[in-house]
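Thread: quick sanity check before group meeting

JM: Hey all, I'm pulling together slides for Thursday and realized we never actually wrote out the predicted structure for the chain we discussed last week. Dropping the sequence here so it's in one place. If anyone has concerns about the input, flag it before I start.
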Amino acid sequence: MWLRGRHPALGPQLTLVLKSLTQAFFTPLADPEHPFTTEALEASIELGQRAIADGVIEDAAGPALMA
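JM (edit): ok, ran it. Output follows.
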């Protein structure tokens, strides 16, 4: 992980506490009909299609794409 070389790592106990708190907060918000992975995949596809339609990829690739 890139943070470990530049910043102190979080302690293992703190990491577990943060994970537990995050799960406790977000689990009740999750829609049981739409698993997180399904929602994440659909959002990724939508963002990718929007980036292609708006020309973001062509702008980012620049001359390398046109060569």
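AS: nice. The helical segments are 2-6, 12-26, 36-53, 56-61, 63-66. The CA atoms of residues 41 and 47 lie 10 Å apart.
JM: adding both to the slides.
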